[in-house]
Amino acid sequence: MGLNTAKKIIKKHLVKGEMIPGEEIAIKIDRTLTQDSTGTMAYLQFEALGIGRVKTKKSVAYIDHNILQSGPENADDHLYIQTVAKKHGIYFSRPGNGICHQVNLERFGVPGDTLLGSDSHTPTAGGIGMLAIGAGGLDVAVAMGGGEYYLNMPKIVKVNLKGKLGDWITAKDIILEMLRRLSVKGGVGKIFEYVGDGVKTLSVPERATITNMGAELGATTSIFPSDDVVHEFLKAQGREEDFSLVEPDEDAGYDEEMEIDLSSLEPMAACPHSPDKVVPVSKLKDVKVNQVCIGSCTNSSYADMMKVANILKGNTVNENVSLTISPGSKQVLTMLSKNGALSYMIDAGARILESACGPCIGMGQSPATDAVSLRTFNRNFEGRSGTKSAKIYLVSPEIAAASALTGHVTDPRQLGRPFEVEIPAKFLIDDNMIVEPSKDGEDVKVVRGPNIKPFPKAKSLGDVLKGKVLTKVVDNITTDHIMPSNAKLLPYRSNIPYLADYCLTPCDEDFPKKAKENSGGFIAAGENYGQGSSREHAALAPLYLGIKAVFAKSFARIHRQNLINNGILPLVFEKPEDYEDIDIMDELEIEDMLEQVNSEIIVVNNKTKNKKYNMLFNVTQRQRDMIKYGGLINLVKKNNM
Ligand code: MIC
Ligand code: SF4
């Protein structure tokens, strides 16, 4: 049987293990990306590893998240990243140059290569046939140092796209259909590989919208083939030499299969507060809209912006709506400004924002109390916008622009004939906002502002773990719940002691206080604990607060690894009903830890209830070693990487 695209790339990069689903493999990483809100920590960890220059083909540090400067913190962090990048051989994408995933597609992504990024939407690059995976900062730091990346071999799911999208139906509707069918945990342990006749009809930015939001399925990554469409795109980006054909063999085998008939889809929206609460927009026509935000790494390409500009052209934004638009990159924004499309947006009354994440991560533009906000983004978790009571719907740029004009959720099919946007034969190319690293780094002084505090380090495992269950949370808790991020907290991403006071507070306001009073303890959780963002802070803040283990019904991939990387045990209830049995403030104890850490099952005593629970500890030997020695940094140092 032939190989599929994902397996072809994995095979070429395989350093350890066999490509058997569920088995541990290690792959070589060609390229890395970081952004600023995870980057400071990743570079502090890189420095702690004591590796001089990066050993990848190319590593890029982007500034796109922490862009509001209402105090010196963010600017200080940017300066740290700029100088540490220059010293260690990393390219630096200056603030204003755009959102990491959009700029990576345009200027850096290479089909057939592997990319590890400290951001969960790194799989966006699967749109040009890269094997691109999101991870915690520490994993990225190790990869920058030339270390391989470990993961469990995912199942490869064939998504057969049939037919062609109808007028006004978009790539966003394809991925929302995937989320409707599979839910936010439907992709855990899987790679979605898109094939079939429908693929040829989708442009690179459309493909990238789909691979981007594969992160919301919990997938390891998503990928399209690198075909003629990618070839044309890279040619138009002046990067033809980066192209190579990466396609599945005709007789390629897959672990699972599914099919979407593109012609059967209709415009859709994900309702508050989860990307999988998907309904046709026709069901929402009575919903009045207060805010519309267009942009983010999901939908901020040149093509998306041109469609929006043409819907807005000659109209005025409804008087009850505030419309913001953030073009995804300097390239996109410059092209819009030169061809006049930007003026259609401004004339209509759009508020043009910097080419950055902006409202997607709550960096400004928080909606009014109870407001309805329609966004072309990928996440609508409660409170992420900065307004807890706001109701965020995720939609295509076409729906967003149409609704901004009418003031209620609008099916764009009412607008008549759609506006066709051709992918330009030549994009406007100017890499003047990319700073090259220095030749050897010796003369570069790394600038550290006062906001940069040392990060907490795990200790090697003791023989007894004991403490209280400090909190008990429900299913699908996101890393936005565990370590909230908004314009007020993001400036402290390099200051864990400060952030720790907000850890898990959206679920349990007193959690940090209880953790401090009890010198740490445990967390009990439901299914898919830690979904969403890759932020390692969701492990570092609990580590700082003395959390020793999390007991959950199941974990999301990146967060589970971040816990292990930081020496915190992710344990899974063997019997889900034991979750019901545990109460907050129950006193738990794990004896003979140094022996039990080698076992698949760890016995936990509930001393308050005089009961025992079996917890599954289904991890690899390397992960056991990380827990024993106190996390990845200690393991890497021990093995003298
Ligand atoms: C997100 O979309 O949640 C973020 C902000 O980009 C995160 C990274 C972070 O928390 O800094 C992600 O997706 O990993
Ligand atoms: Fe930025 Fe939003 Fe994309 Fe995260 S999802 S990288 S915050 S635009």
Automatic annotation (TrEMBL):
Pfam family name, one: Aconitase_C
Enzyme Commission number(s): 4.2.1.36
GO MF terms, alphabetically ordered: 4 iron, 4 sulfur cluster binding; aconitate hydratase activity; homoaconitate hydratase activity; metal ion binding
GO CC aspect terms: cytosol
Single GO BP term: tricarboxylic acid cycle
Required cofactor names: [4Fe-4S] cluster
Keywords per UniProt: Iron, Iron-sulfur, Lyase, Metal-binding
All copies of domain Aconitase/3-isopropylmalate dehydratase large subunit alpha/beta/alpha, residue ranges: 7-284
Residue span(s) of domain Aconitase A/isopropylmalate dehydratase small subunit swivel: 522-575
CDD domains for this protein: AcnA_Bact
UniProt family annotation: Belongs to the aconitase/IPM isomerase family.
Oligomer status and interactors: Monomer.
Protein name stated in the entry: Homoaconitase large subunit
Organism: Clostridium luticellarii
